[in-house]
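REQUEST ID: PR-0412
SUBMITTED BY: lab tech R.K.
PRIORITY: routine
TASK: structure prediction, single protein chain
INPUT:
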Amino acid sequence: MQLLFNDLQIQFRTSGKASQSVAEPSDNRNPQPSVDTATTKAISMLSNQWFEKVTAMYNEPHRAYHNMTHVEDVLSSLDYLMEEEDVHCNEQASVDVAITTFAAFFHDVVYNPKSATNEKDSAELFVQFASALWEVVISLSSSILNEETATAGIRAEGMAAKIEECIIATATHINSSTQANETNNILLATFLDADMSTLGRSEEAYDKYAGCIRKEYVFVERDVYCQKRAEILESFLPIEDDEDTKKGDTGSADVPTSKATSSTEGTKKQHEFIYATKKGREQWETQARRNLKREIGMLRQGIIPCEDEG
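STATUS: complete
OUTPUT:
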């Protein structure tokens, strides 16, 4: 995974000029022609520093679900959703892979269950990384920025903005997915579907996920957790599956605190699907609805899936 992280920084620096895949990096790969040796070495050093920083944060002891295993699951789901794109010869597809993979690495890097600004803080940390990367490139480039370097900078800024957008959008999954679908923002829709793919896993896998979320929110009183978590999960069910629901929530599926729902009480549902992409719906929609309904029923009875495991 560290090779992937390092390789993606090369991709980010070259701003979509690479013709090879960023999905399958290898030690034998030659540096891109536009990246000089000094810059490549500097990027590699920066990569090691940031990879250690990011993984250390994901390995924090309070994380039962929002950890590196989740990042790997998101990357796997992205592979599935984007597998038809030939990143070996399609420049835009290569850029899209870099954008969504960076978003996967950083989207939960800051995670405090008691905080309401995790997504914003994660996005800000990514911006710090992107700024540090570009400073390395500029400092080792020619003292006179030529047209090619200037153009690369503009493209890199565009990539960074899209990555930041993906990270921020995870704060309002359902609304963001609906808007991405309505505006034909395929890249954002793909990323959000990958992040939500766990909802559509097998019953056993889903229950383990639900149990992990409880572990992260063990500080919340049990009956409050069951009530608020059920309300949040109800908000994820599409209109036809939850016509009698009077309350909606556009926040994270994981946050079971009263603060997460108080600002959106009374919001009417607008979405017809959980997932925004066709492939996401075909792969996960039906099972996700089953899983959500089942957990809601359990929570209403005071039962939390896999609560006593681990």
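NOTES: The CA atoms of residues 298 and 304 lie 7 Å apart.
REVIEWED BY: pending
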